[in-house]
């Protein structure tokens, strides 16, 4: 398996036998999501999460570059989140054009006015990259690392998903490769301990809070499909810290049941909360009424250590990503010139759409060649970006309106195409041309004065049919994958 699986020759009978085994193995090992169409069973029917039958190839140099950068990105983004003037200057126009971001900003200002109560900031991050081709390469062709460049797609600061499931995917791929007789070295399918690393971060934050009777609170949606992924982190916690209690509540629950005492200590059902882990709240649809927003505010005003805090969530917005690409922005936070260079090397071309000459120039670039760009709002979870003709339509309507300030314009990445079989509803099970995103997981805990924890702890890949614009797994665009490392 030098660079692709195109040389794997299997009969349809054998291929379907491997598919059946892979599906059963996935269900046995918790590579699962809840079926959205299972109304009769209250949505509790587990089905296999979408996955690739085999791993996708990543040059070792590319993987090492992404992994090495994670600790530096962790620290950079922590410093950004604690720099009020940088946040304010970066987001001042966005919050006038985007009601969701305005709500987040208003909560941030209220927390800032009374004083931040939590002793440390805590992030469970995932930094997503693509392998951009420096010249056109056909799917499955032999490539070397110097024909590719690692480009950052986005930095996920809230609800960084699939740390739980991705640990199991690498084991599944060891099985499928062996079933087709492919020999490989153990380091070519590297050990992946993303869920373990995240669970260690949760436990460390809980310890730092300093109350052995306090609980960890998961904030989840009322119709959560990705519960198995979330549970993996919880189960890892129970393995190493069985004395820690984990609660699962919604924002509405916090609004109705959460109590803040005179010292800003949060209790839910009489239990003090040490750590709040948000797996909800990253898009406007997560707040259907002011009661959900009130629940979020109650969390933010408390002494509980939030993952993420409100300023961490703001830091993860696309606008901040674009502002950091400006000359001198990274240098504001990182003094080591070699680290700055390493980080900047991964940046795509990013453009502000603020009203004025700079934004006007970006609009003209997009209208002249819409196929070269992606138009991104301040949202997570997949399904929100605009491409090609939709970019033209958007700027035709909003060329000179403030609504454009809620977006950024980004260089479109043209990633290396490979071959794989995708196991996903609605996608034909056949050898297909695919492209992948590489995600690196990281944990950060710190304050303005000290760094408590900073490490990268695993990886994931999301793979989709070539020509599919969006990349979310639960949103239905991509499948879970793992890297097969080549020199």
Molecular structure report:
- The protein is of the alpha+beta class and about 475 residues long.
- The chain is about 35% helix and about 25% strand.
- The strands form five sheets. Strands 3, 5, 6, 17, 18, 19 and 20 form a seven-stranded antiparallel β-sheet that branches.
- Strand 14 (about 375) and strand 15 form a beta hairpin.
- Helix 1 runs antiparallel to helix 6.
Give a short overview.
This protein is α+β, with helices and mostly antiparallel strands and about 475 residues long. About 35% of the residues lie in helices and about 25% in strands.
Task: Detail the topology: elements first, then pairings.
Elements: H1 12-28, E1 32-34, E2 46-48, E3 51-52, E4 56-59, H2 60-81, H3 84-91, H4 94-97, H5 99-114, E5 121-133, E6 148-156, H6 163-179, H7 194-209, E7 215-219, H8 227-240, E8 246-249, H9 251-257, E9 258-260, E10 266-268, E11 271-278, H10 290-300, E12 305-307, H11 310-315, H12 318-324, H13 337-345, E13 350-352, H14 357-368, E14 373-377, E15 386-387, H15 388-398, E16 407-411, E17 418-423, E18 431-446, E19 451-465, E20 479-481, E21 483-486
Parallel strand pairs: 4-21, 7-8, 7-11, 11-12
Antiparallel strand pairs: 1-2, 3-17, 5-6, 5-18, 9-10, 10-11, 13-16, 14-15, 14-16, 17-18, 18-19, 19-20
């Amino acid at each position: 398996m030098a660079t692709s699986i195109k040389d794997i020759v299997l009969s349809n009978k054998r291929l379907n036998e491997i598919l059946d085994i892979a599906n059963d193995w996935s269900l046995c090992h918790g590579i699962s999501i809840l079926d959205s169409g299972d109304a009769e069973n209250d949505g509790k029917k587990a089905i296999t999460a979408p996955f690739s039958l085999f791993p996708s190839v990543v040059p070792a140099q590319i993987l090492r570059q992404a992994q090495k950068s994670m600790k530096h990105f962790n620290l950079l983004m922590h410093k950004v989140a604690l720099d009020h003037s940088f946040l304010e200057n970066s987001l001042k126009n966005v919050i006038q054009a985007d009601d969701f971001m305005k709500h987040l900003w208003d909560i941030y200002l209220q927390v800032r006015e009374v004083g931040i109560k939590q002793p440390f900031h805590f992030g469970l991050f995932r930094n997503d990259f693509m392998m951009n081709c420096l010249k056109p390469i056909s799917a499955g062709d032999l490539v070397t690392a110097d024909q590719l460049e690692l480009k950052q797609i986005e930095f996920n600061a809230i609800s960084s998903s699939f740390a739980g499931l991705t640990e199991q995917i690498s084991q599944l791929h060891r099985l499928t490769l062996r079933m087709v007789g492919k020999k490989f070295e153990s380091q070519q399918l590297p050990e992946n301990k993303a869920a373990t690393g995240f669970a260690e971060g949760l436990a460390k934050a809980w310890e730092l809070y300093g109350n052995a009777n306090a609980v960890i609170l998961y904030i989840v949606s009322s119709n959560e499909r990705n519960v198995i992924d979330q549970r993996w982190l919880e189960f890892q916690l129970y393995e190493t810290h069985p004395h820690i209690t984990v609660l699962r509540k919604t924002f509405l629950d916090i609004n109705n049941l959460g109590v803040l005492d005179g010292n800003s200590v949060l209790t839910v059902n009489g239990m003090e909360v040490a750590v709040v882990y948000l797996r909800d709240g990253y898009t406007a649809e997560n707040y259907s009424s002011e009661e959900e927003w009130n629940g979020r505010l109650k969390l933010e005003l408390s002494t509980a250590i939030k993952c993420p805090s409100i300023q961490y969530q703001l830091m993860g917005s696309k606008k901040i990503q674009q502002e950091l690409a400006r000359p001198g922005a990274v240098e504001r936070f990182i003094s080591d010139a070699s680290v700055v260079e390493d980080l900047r090397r991964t940046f795509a071309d990013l453009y502000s759409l603020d009203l004025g000459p700079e934004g006007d120039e970006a609009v003209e670039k997009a209208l002249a060649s819409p196929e070269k760009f992606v138009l991104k709002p301040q949202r997570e979870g997949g399904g929100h970006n605009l491409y090609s003709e939709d970019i033209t339509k958007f700027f035709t309507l909003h060329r000179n309106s403030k609504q454009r300030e809620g977006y950024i314009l980004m260089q479109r990445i043209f990633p290396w195409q490979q071959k794989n079989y995708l196991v996903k509803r609605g996608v034909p099970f056949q050898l297909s041309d695919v492209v992948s995103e590489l995600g690196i997981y990281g944990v950060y805990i710190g304050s303005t004065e000290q760094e408590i924890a900073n490490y990268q702890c695993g990886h994931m890949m999301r793979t989709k049919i070539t020509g599919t614009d969006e990349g979310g797994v639960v949103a239905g665009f991509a499948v879970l994958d793992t890297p097969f490392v080549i020199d």
